[in-house]
Amino acid sequence: MSDQFNIALMGKSRQSMLKAAESLTEEQRTMVPAGFNNSIHWQLGHVVAVAESILYGFGGQPSELPKEYAAFFGPGTKPADWTGQPPAWEDVVSRLQQQVVHARETFGSRMDSAVAVKENFAKAETIQNLFELVAYHDGSHEGMVKAMARIVQQ
């Protein structure tokens, strides 16, 4: 896959998630449907938090994402366990979109470079591998967002 393809794929997946959620009310975005552990708000925040961890953590670059994102949206978290208010929907949406731009600026010319953290759970070797991992993760959550959007609209 080309370098630009991976970055574009990240953007397309996120636009698809946003399109699925654009007509939902706040109540629908924060609803946890039966059979699910999380809401659409959580899904989008999780995509941002995990991509940031993978790209910047394994890529060896400083993250600009507030630490509260990991607390609210990291792996294993769920709205039922939240204490306090999560980042606002508008902030999550903005970061979901801007993360693609920032990742392109940070890593776009270094896709063949070795990762900074060689011992990573995915055994990624290059920055390109990190983008492939993010694309896989984003795609799985894109499907969840689309399914959940249909359910909460019924």
From TrEMBL:
Domain DinB-like residue range list: 12-143
Domain of life of the source: Bacteria
Record-linked InterPro entries: DinB-like, DinB/YfiT-like
Cross-referenced Gene3D superfamilies: dinb family like domain
Protein's UniProt name: DinB family protein
Organism whose genome encodes this protein: Paenibacillus lacisoli
